[in-house]
Every structure is written in structure tokens, then in C-alpha cells.
């Protein structure tokens, strides 16, 4: 019911406030909804796991994302009764983006119009012929909506009038920028070449948060949700075999949200801040979990039981970083270690509460027994699989579990040679934080290099750069007059798209259409996936990152490491690949 109303119209802020209050009370107090002071902000709770949150839906962001759908349906001319009614009765002959909000507008229509600036940023016009895209008022340029960035006087000096379309700057499928625009607003002319012209299709609009360009609530929500810095400890509390109550207490502890005595003392509560476990130091988060002598007598035996022999008990920051480093992975062994860590934090806190509120007392050995019991019960409910190693057998023995042991599997595979009447084109793409590249190499059946190319690109997505590698390989083969080719890529996504009717991601459509046009120039062209181990030559070329966008490399100029790769491929070297 809540989702339905959120998708209908923007809810008043007081509704968010009341609902968030109810959700917050439920999280911290349970079904009785007793008001309690929370030590972790609701914005943090609503954050994604990677940012230290619990991925609880942020109501205002969800409501906003759901209502952006209405704008998308209007600007994409969706064939619905509501869109037809809105255009006839509310928009009429006005421009949706620039029309004023009528004084008599309803609440829902007023809120839709208020969200236009956000929707404008999230929608993008892809340039085909340019006839239906307004140069100044539509979002098509890397700088955004141009009328928002440049004053009217500069627009006038550019000789492109307010209602000019993008086709004014296109000639024969290429950019031809008027000299007045170059002289008066060089920023536009300089970056316009980042916009690809897809002359094989008409202009169309896409929703940028979604990969396929159509509106998607999940993608839109994630796009507009406030972004915070990521935390390193997410995998410690978010893993396959987690016990929810254990992980929750650990999550609170990692945020320093446990209501320890010392924290209450600082808040003005009249209380003895001494730690109830050791009766020595003040009880704060750092001391209680990784600083108390009692906790040390619990933690060290547990470490030995999971195969880590250590002599010293360190402070909070060191121990957390140590756990992050040594408990990595998603295999059964790593899951057991994370189970133990979370059970340890939970039971230390439980023992503390038992002593404070019930006057109970459990010695360290007894608490270790409780932790081991909880972990064993959890493991007994799952079918575990371990790679058969001495360390893993020792782990299974220590925890009395009966897993299935498997041997590491691997296969050996050579570079795939083309058929006798074809040539092989291996392609690849590469992506780093600040640079991207692609490469392709053409070889005959014996493995002789016929041509090679490398190139650089602005970093975008690995799928785009893999496509660029395929395009470069096809251009290279076509330039050599080759008619029958086999193309191999280690990107399963790219091969699947090229071999089926799957819609490519919107930002790759221009290069995708160019690839399809290039394919039609060959008598035969097939695409197949290969393992990365057998695609080393293309991988090497993709990682060169030359200054040029497209740079052919002569085989005689190959570096020694590239010559070695080509030679090993040609002699049929078998490359080892591990199988999970």
C-alpha cells in the first residue's frame, strides 16, 4: 500500500517524518514501538551496505524516484491515457521543460513540475540526425543543458537562435560547428566531439541511471540517493552464513553505537562508568570489545580455533583491520571466521548486559563455549564445501562439521586458431580510474601477426571499451581486405549482445550500431567468447594506453613481452585456468 501511494504523488514531509519515526522505533525497540534514543542516524541506516548502512529504503528518495517515472513517461511520449490527458489539458502547446507552474495547479502536478531540474539531469538525448533535439534547451551535450550555463548574449552571438536544433551543427553525419560558435563559446565546440552521432538511427531520449535507457525504479533510487564514503568492514557483517542478531550488534558496534556506561556517563547519566567485565577501566566501545582483559580471554582461544595463532591482544582499530585482512573471501572457511567474529562481539555485549541488568556472570571459558555452540548450530544447518587442504581439514575438525571436500579444478587451454580459410581477431578492453583503452590483433592459422591496433578512450564502462576493442578489430581486418574472420573476446556480456537481440546499454548503442554495419562488410564474421588466459595478446594491447585514439602497431615494433606472448600462442602453449 505504501509503495502504491509513493508512486502516485509526492507525499507531504510530515508523512515522511511520522513513517520514519515508526520505522526507527521498530528497529531499535521492536514491535511495541517504544520510543528509544538511537545512537546511529537514520540516514546512515538507509545507506547501502557498502557505505555502512542496512539498505533500508529512504522514503523520500523512494517517493521522488517513483514520481520521476511520470516525467519520464511524458518526455518519452509513452502511449498511455494519462500522458495523453496531461499533454492535452496541462501542457497543451507549451514546452514542458520551460513552462511556468500555473497558480491553480494541483499538488501532484505542482510537485511533478518541481522535479523537472532533476529529471533533466537524468535524461539524455542521443544524437541521430539531430532534427528533434533543441540545441540550447535539451540535455544532449557533456556540459549539460547549454542555456543553463551560458548567458543569452553569448547565445545570440553564436548565431544559433533559441529554438535551433542540433542538426544545425551536423553535416554528412559529422560535426560541423559554425565559426561564430567556436569563437564565442569555445567550450561547447571543444567538447561537442565527445558526443557520438549515430547516423543509423533517429534521435531518441534515454534515462541515464538505467543501463538499457528505460526508466527503472531501482536504478533511479540508487542514482539519486545521497552518496557517502564506503567503509572497509562491510564484508565482516554482510556474508552468506550470517546470524542476523549477531551481525546487527556487530554493525552497531562498528558504528560505535553501543550504549556503554562511559557513553551514558558523558551524556549526563549518573552511573558508574567502570567496565562490568573487568572492574578496572572505563567501559567504552574500544575497551569492551578489544581492550578488556576478560574479552582477551575469550577472543584469543577463538582465534586459535579458527587457525590463527597470535600472542598479543591489540586495540580496536588494529583488530578490525586485522579481521578485514584475514577474513576475506566467500568460501566456507571465511564464513566460519566471520561467524566467530560476529558471535564474539554479540556475546561480549550480551554478557555485559547480563551482568549489568541481571547480576549474572559467565567466566571466559563458559562464554567461549556459548560462542562455539552458536557457530556449530549455524554450520549444522548448511551443506558446507571446502577445498581439500590441510588448513581446511583442520578448520572442519576444530568446528566438528562434516563438509564436502573438493579438489581444486583447473583446465588447460591454448590460443584458439582460426579455420584454414579465416583469420582470427582477438579483442579486449581495459578500464582504470582515470584512463581506458582497447586493443585488437589479427593473426592467421599458424599464429603469424597480420595487424595489431591499440587505442585510448575516456573512461566510461568496461562494456563500452570491450565494444571499442571489437570495433577496432573489425576496422583493422576491413582495412587489410580480409573477408572471412572469427572474432574472439573474453567479455561474455559483449559476445552475448552481439550474438543475440539483447538491447545493449544505452551508452554503447552508437559503437554497437557501427559494429553491426562493419559486420555486413565481411563474407563471414562470427563472435565467440574465450578465456582471458588465451586472450593475452589483445589484453596486452588494451593496456598500452597510447596518446592516440586509434594507433596501429607494427609487429616488428612489438616489445619483448608481446613477442613472447605471440610466440607462445603460435606454438600452442597450454594456459592453466582454475575452475571454481
Automatic annotation (TrEMBL):
Pfam families: RVT_3, zf-RVT. SUPFAM superfamilies: Ribonuclease H-like (SSF53098). One of its GO terms (molecular function) is nucleic acid binding. Residues 215-299 form the Reverse transcriptase zinc-binding domain. Residues 426-543 form the RNase H type-1 domain. The lineage of its organism: Eukaryota, Viridiplantae, Streptophyta, Embryophyta, Tracheophyta. CDD domains: RNase_H_like. This is Ribonuclease H domain. It comes from Macleaya cordata (Five-seeded plume-poppy).
Amino acid at each position: 500500500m505504501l509503495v502504491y501511494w509513493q508512486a502516485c504523488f509526492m507525499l507531504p514531509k510530515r508523512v515522511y517524518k511520522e513513517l520514519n519515526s515508526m520505522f526507527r522505533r521498530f528497529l531499535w525497540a521492536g514491535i511495541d514501538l517504544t520510543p528509544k534514543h538511537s545512537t546511529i542516524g537514520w540516514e546512515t541506516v538507509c545507506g547501502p551496505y557498502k557505505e555502512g548502512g542496512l539498505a533500508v529504503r529512504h522514503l523520500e528518495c523512494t517517493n521522488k524516484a517513483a514520481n520521476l517515472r511520470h516525467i519520464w513517461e511524458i518526455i518519452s511520449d509513452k502511449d498511455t491515457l494519462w500522458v495523453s490527458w496531461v499533454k492535452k489539458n496541462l501542457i497543451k502547446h507549451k514546452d514542458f521543460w520551460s513552462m511556468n507552474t500555473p497558480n491553480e495547479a494541483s499538488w501532484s502536478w505542482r510537485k511533478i513540475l518541481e522535479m523537472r531540474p532533476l529529471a533533466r539531469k537524468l535524461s539524455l538525448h542521443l544524437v541521430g540526425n539531430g532534427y528533434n533535439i533543441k540545441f540550447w534547451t535539451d540535455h544532449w551535450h557533456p556540459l549539460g543543458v547549454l542555456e543553463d550555463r551560458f548567458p543569452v548574449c553569448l547565445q545570440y552571438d553564436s548565431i544559433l537562435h533559441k529554438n535551433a536544433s542540433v542538426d544545425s551543427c551536423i553535416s554528412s553525419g559529422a560535426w560541423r560547428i559554425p565559426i561564430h560558435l567556436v569563437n564565442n563559446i569555445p567550450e561547447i565546440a571543444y567538447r561537442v566531439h565527445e558526443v557520438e552521432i549515430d547516423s543509423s538511427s533517429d534521435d531518441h531520449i534515454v534515462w541515464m541511471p538505467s543501463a538499457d535507457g528505460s526508466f527503472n525504479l531501482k536504478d533511479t533510487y540508487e542514482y539519486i540517493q545521497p552518496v557517502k564514503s564506503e567503509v572497509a568492514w562491510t564484508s565482516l557483517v554482510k556474508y552468506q552464513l550470517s546470524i542476523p542478531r549477531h551481525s546487527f550488534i556487530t554493525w552497531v558496534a562498528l558504528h560505535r553505537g553501543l550504549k556503554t556506561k562511559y557513553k551514558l556517563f558523558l551524556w549526563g547519566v549518573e552511573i558508574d562508568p567502570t567496565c562490568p567485565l573487568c572492574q578496572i577501566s572505563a567501559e567504552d566501545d574500544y575497551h569492551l570489545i578489544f581492550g578488556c582483559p576478560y574479552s582477551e580471554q575469550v577472543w584469543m582461544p577463538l582465534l586459535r580455533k579458527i587457525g590463527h595463532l597470535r600472542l598479543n591482544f591489540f586495540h580496536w582499530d588494529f583488530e578490525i583491520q586485522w579481521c578485514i585482512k584475514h577474513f576475506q573471501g566467500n568460501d566456507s572457511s571465511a564464513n566460519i571466521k566471520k561467524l566467530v567474529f560476529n558471535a564474539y562481539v554479540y556475546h561480549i555485549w550480551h554478557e555485559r548486559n547480563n551482568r549489568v541488568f541481571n547480576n549474572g556472570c559467565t567466566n571466559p571459558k563458559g562464554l567461549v563455549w556459548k560462542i562455539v555452540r552458536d557457530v556449530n548450530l549455524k554450520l549444522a544447518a548448511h551443506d558446507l564445501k571446502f577445498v581439500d587442504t590441510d588448513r581446511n581439514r583442520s578448520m572442519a575438525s576444530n568446528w566438528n562439521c562434516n563438509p564436502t571436500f573438493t579438489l581444486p579444478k583447473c583446465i588447460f587451454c591454448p590460443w584458439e586458431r582460426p579455420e584454414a580459410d579465416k583469420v582470427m581477431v582477438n579483442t579486449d578492453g581495459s578500464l582504470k580510474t582515470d584512463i581506458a583503452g582497447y586493443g585488437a590483433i589479427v593473426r592467421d592459422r599458424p599464429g603469424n601477426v597480420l595487424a595489431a591496433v591499440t587505442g585510448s578512450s575516456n573512461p566510461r564502462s568496461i562494456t563500452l571499451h570491450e565494444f571499442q576493442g571489437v570495433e577496432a578489430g573489425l576496422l583493422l581486418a576491413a582495412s587489410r581486405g580480409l573477408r572471412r574472420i572469427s572474432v574472439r573476446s573474453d567479455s561474455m556480456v559483449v559476445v552475448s549482445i552481439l550474438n543475440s537481440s539483447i538491447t545493449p546499454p544505452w551508452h554503447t548503442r552508437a559503437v554497437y550500431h557501427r559494429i553491426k554495419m562493419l559486420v555486413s562488410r565481411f563474407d563471414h564474421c562470427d563472435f565467440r567468447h574465450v578465456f582471458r588466459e588465451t586472450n593475452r595478446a589483445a589484453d596486452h594491447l588494451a593496456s598500452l594506453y597510447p596518446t592516440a585514439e586509434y594507433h596501429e602497431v607494427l609487429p616488428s615494433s612489438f616489445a619483448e613481452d608481446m613477442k613472447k606472448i605471440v610466440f607462445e600462442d603460435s606454438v600452442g602453449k597450454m594456459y592453466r585456468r582454475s575452475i571454481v
